[in-house]
Structures are given as C-alpha cells and as structure tokens.
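2024-03-11 09:14:02 INFO queue: dequeued item Aminotransferase, len=393
2024-03-11 09:14:02 INFO validating residues
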Amino acid sequence: MAKLIKYVRKGLAETPSSPILKFSDYASKIPDVVKFTLGEPDFNTPDHIKEAAKRSIDENHSHYAPSNGTMSLRRAASQFLSKKYDQNYDPETEVLVTTGVTESIFDAVLATLNSGDVMVVPTPIFPLYMTDENIINEGIEVVKVNTSDDGFKLTPAKLQKVIDQYGDRVRMLVMNYPTNPTGVMYSQDELDALADVIRDKPIFALCDEIYSELNYDQPHASMEKSLHDQVILMNGVSKSWAMTGYRIGIVCAPKDILQQIAKIHQAIATTEPTPMQDAAEEAFKNGMDDALPMKEEFQKRRDVLYAGLTKLGFECAKPQGAFYIFAKIPEGFDQDDNQFIYELVDKAHVAVSAGSSFSEGGQGYIRFSYAVAMDQIKEGLKRLEKFVKENKK
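2024-03-11 09:14:37 INFO prediction written
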C-alpha cells in the first residue's frame, strides 16, 4: 500500500511541512531551552470567557450552529469592529465565523482566485501564503515583493510595478498588519496610498488584522477604511484574548463576496463548535479592553528585548505591533539563518525562527517572539550575549 503515495494530490508529497514547527519540535527536546519561536500569547484566557464556555456546555449548546456562525457571535463581532475601528459590516450577510484565520485565508483564496491568477504578497510574511507552504495555491502564481529595503513595508511604486508587469492577471493583494514576522505597522496614509493603486481594479485586498489589538505606537489603521468594497477583512480572538486553542476566526466582506466564501467554509468545516462560539461572543461583547493589560506587558517585553539585541549588534526594525522582532544576524557570523538557529539552540539553548522561513527578504534574519515571560527574555539575552562573545569570528 505504500506505493499509493504517488497517487496523492499532485505536489502534496513534495510540499514540506512547516520549517518553523519542525524546528520548534527539535528545540522542545532540549530540557532548559528558552523558546522565542511560536507566536502564542503566554497569558491565560480571561476568566469571564472561560466561564462562558463552561456555561455553554452546561446549557447543552452541543448541537450544530448555523453554518456562518451563531447570529449572536456575528452580531458581537460586528459591534466590536464598529466600536473599536469604525469598520461596519452587516452581521447577517457580511460576517462569517471560521476555524481561526487560517481557515479564513484558505476559504477566501479558494473562493476568489482561479488558476493563472496572480496573488501579490509582500515579504517577509508568515509562510501560510506561500505556494511552497500552502497547497491551496496550486495553479495560482504568487508574486513575492521583497520589502526588506523599504523598512519591511510595501510601497505604492513596487505594487504598481507588479501590476504593470502582470496586468489583468493580478487578482489579489495580501496585507497583514501589524506584520508577522517584523512587527511593522502601516499608517493610515500608507494604506490609503496602496489602496489608490488598486482602487476600482478587479483586485481583492485580503487584509489579515489578527493583531489589531496589539498596536503600541498608534491607533490601528486599516485598508478597509480606504477600500471597503474590495477588502476581505480577517480578524479573530486568538491573539487579543489568548484564545489560540479556541480556533475562532472572523471573515468580513461585502455580501456578494461573503456568500461565495461561505460556500467554501460549508464544505470545509460546516460550522464551528458552539461552546467555542459562545466563548468568542463573550470576548467580543464583554471583553472590549481585555487586551490592554497584555499589550502593556508585551510593550515592556519588546523594549527589553529590542534594547538587548541592539546592544549585542543585532539590527532590528523596532516593532510597532504584534509580538515579534526580526533581527539581522550580526557581522562575524555565517549569514545562513537556517544554520545559525541550530547552532544557537545547540550551543546556547536559545530557540528562534529562521528568517528565510518567511520568504524573500528574510535571509540572514532571525525572528524572536516575545510572547514569553520577562524572566525568560532576560535569561535568553544572557545566553545570547555569551554565545555572541564565544562564537563571533
């Protein structure tokens, strides 16, 4: 039966598993490792949300919810987005509940793009959007735009250059802000300028705003404000309420577009677990400011880690949101980031992610996630200082 592997979906067997998760598993086998690898808040879910989940189970909310999500959750999410960011969507026709933003991305891409279409992806970026990481993009050409020379931000000029080159084949622009892996955030003026490039063209803007509550230095900005009718907006409860295990994402889009995305969702997931939806409803409805204490702590961690890395010779774009620092490997070390992370974890027991995992512009960089306790950050910096002194050429 092993011979049947050659008959699985074309290209799937050759598609590697996530190198980020592979390395994280490797690092986890080191007993005293300090892990700066996975982007998951180390806080507990707020108690009032946990109580909502328990209450949902006790009240026997154990049956199928409507495929698009419970109306009460969609209404709570819609009201949250409106109050927080002035993003206005009809909960009945323009909001869909998915299995995290991961499924949201899958559904939106599958619903809107055809073989031969071009999807523009500013890099470095989380590898889910890459063809070599995500088989749903088979037949779609992903054009990666290296932003490392522009402060890790896509510029209107570079976007226009891609459109000039590929013409009517360009069908989607991917935007993630605050950005994983760099923590960079766009201003509203910058997003407006990018929107102007694709305005009134048959181009969707897929806007992943899962880190919207974790902006440190400015209010959250959104391309939705400048290009509502072309935006497919994504958000959820994973990062802002430390609910990664609840797996609840939100997709918002104009009615006719959302109807098509919902068809993919019906085929993939049917609906989400009702108790998890009830918990997410509680987060959106009564946890309006739950992220503020976490954001304050993340900002303190950012400042300590940024200062420590800079002192050791790592060049970093100072993060304006999320909980990542993207650091250039200092001179005096081999710039092969994949080799560097294994040497670092083996010798110093400090685990980080390779920058090249995030595609073009990431080579020679490493990503630190500071979603770890402050004492771990300080211990990691101590070990890193010793490693730099002993191994720099």
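2024-03-11 09:14:37 INFO annotate: The two ends are 52 Å apart (CA to CA).
2024-03-11 09:14:38 INFO item closed
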